[in-house]
Design goal:
Helix content is about 40%, strand content about 25%. By secondary structure, it is of the alpha/beta class. The strands form 3 sheets. Strands 7, 8, 9, 10, 11, 12, 15, 16 and 18 form a 9-stranded mixed β-sheet that branches. The structure holds NADPH dihydro-nicotinamide-adenine-dinucleotide phosphate. NADPH dihydro-nicotinamide-adenine-dinucleotide phosphate binds near residues 8 and 162.
């Protein structure tokens, strides 16, 4: 029996909420709250028409405003808050959870909306020098809540999507069942789906384009090695998808795994991109459309990347037109009983199957299912631990079981081809 408050009702949220409804033993009551309440109402209506036993309410909330969030939390009295809005809202929602002493769960780490804000900018530039990577996001802002969450007796589960999220659970599972010591991890994220548009992003365009156009980096021997965007390219033959070009990116789970598994000598993250996506992105960047700095246009201030978001297809609308499969997983090398070994743990997900089941494409699906799983494990007490943690810091077994149960079955290949 539990009451969950969900913030956000976009592509990922719609999957997470429908998956919570499938797990109605744990999720007995839900409040869906977002900026545009009509999206929450439409989903509530869809679930009620299907006969869900979950008691659903909806609300409008401005998740940038701690007071507004606190008011809603005090009114609804949830047992946990699942943040599936945007990374910009992580800290305001964490502050509200802290004030109300309620558990907090999210799928992506904090980054600011305005990267020109002087106080944030100064801290960012200091961090770039100290840590050696230049991505706008890092865990320091949320890890800073550790003591406050411990004192309040509440759990903060960070980054329970697929990557980050499942990829870190795969690593913890490999350590528990396959290795005495892990030496290298390559996280491979392949989207073999085709939506038929020349250019569209699979999740929030602003967050996606910021991530992909940034410098790459990887973790080696205890420090970051930074690369230019798309500098390192490899080809890989993905099970059930086929050969794809993939590029090394900076990705947030590398930071958490590097900290929590100091034995790991190298951690890399690769994502596949088609040539059309890369050409469009380069062109948009060259003309300034990816900029996060406001400009004045005909007397009105606009942020170029936000304007671009308004022009691009809504990722939540890609479901009916996307065909093909995703394959996301980890190739892990290490030692067991004195012998070197390598395994590949991955999940394959079919865009059209996801659409048939929930009306969403596989990127939202592969993120929304783990968001529900992480939340369920916190609510049932299996992953309850006061403080702020990533998914690699808990027992991976119940999470791995729930992936199989709720639509993301995984495979362990004990003889994979490695990435050069
Ligand atoms: P969408 O843009 O589709 O949805 C975001 C939702 O949040 C929308 O409903 C939006 O409202 C709402 N929202 C935004 N700002 C506010 C605000 N100030 N107050 C209240 N509600 C607000 O994003 P996605 O569903 O694609 O992504 C959701 C999250 O999932 C992101 O944090 C993203 O980074 C993360 N993600 C994680 C992945 C992983 O594997 N770990 C992979 C993919 C995504 P409105 O409808 O009005 O716009």
């Amino acid at each position: 029996m539990s009451r969950l408050l969900i913030i956000g009702c976009g592509g990922v949220a719609q999957v997470a909420i429908q998956k919570c409804a499938q797990n109605s033993k744990v999720f007995t009551e839900m409040c869906i709250a977002s900026r545009t309440v009509s999206k929450c109402d439409a989903l509530k209506e869809k679930l009620e028409k299907q006969g869900t036993p979950v008691k659903i309410t909806t609300a409008t909330v401005n998740a940038d405003d701690v007071k507004d969030l606190v008011k809603l939390i005090k009114e609804y009295q949830p047992d946990a808050v699942l943040n599936v809005a945007l990374p910009y809202q992580d800290l305001t929602i964490m502050d509200a959870c802290l004030e109300c002493k309620v558990d907090y769960i999210d799928t992506a780490n904090y980054e600011p909306e305005d990267t020109d804000e002087p106080t944030w900018r100064a801290a960012y530039e200091k961090r770039c020098k100290e840590k050696g990577f230049t991505a706008y996001f890092d865990y320091s802002y949320q890890w800073a809540y550790m003591d406050k969450f411990k004192e309040a007796g509440i759990t903060g589960l960070l980054g329970t999507g697929f990557d980050p999220g499942v990829t870190s659970v795969f690593t913890a599972y490999a350590k528990k069942h396959y290795f005495d010591e892990i030496h290298t991890v390559d996280i491979l994220d392949c989207n073999g789906g085709d939506h038929g548009y020349a250019f569209a992003t699979n999740f929030n365009p602003e967050i996606n384009l910021r991530e992909v156009s940034a410098n790459g980096s990887y973790w080696e021997d205890g420090h970051w090695v930074e690369t230019k965007p798309m500098e390192i390219k490899r080809e890989y033959d993905f099970p059930q998808v086929g050969k794809k070009d993939m590029y090394l990116l900076h990705h947030e789970e590398i930071e958490a795994l590097g900290r929590n598994f100091p034995e790991i000598k190298r951690i890399r993250f690769f994502m596949t991109f088609g040539q059309s996506y890369l050409d469009h992105m380069r062109c948009l960047e060259d003309v300034g459309m990816l900029s996060t700095s406001p400009i004045n246009f005909e007397g009105k201030e606009i942020v170029p990347i936000q304007f671009l978001k308004a022009l691009l297809p809504d990722p939540a609308s890609l479901g009916p037109r996307t065909v093909g499969k995703t394959n996301i997983g980890c190739i892990i090398r290490g030692v067991k009983d004195g012998k070197e070994k390598v395994i590949y743990i991955y999940n394959v997900c079919d865009h059209q199957e996801c659409y048939k089941e929930l009306g969403s494409q596989a990127i939202s699906y592969t993120t929304g299912v783990p968001a529900m799983i992480g939340t369920a494990l916190v609510l049932t007490g299996q992953w309850k631990k006061p403080g702020v943690y990533t998914t690699d810091e808990f027992d991976p077994d119940p999470y791995m079981d729930m992936l199989n149960e709720f639509g993301l079955p995984w495979v362990v290949d004990e003889n994979p081809v490695e990435v050069e």
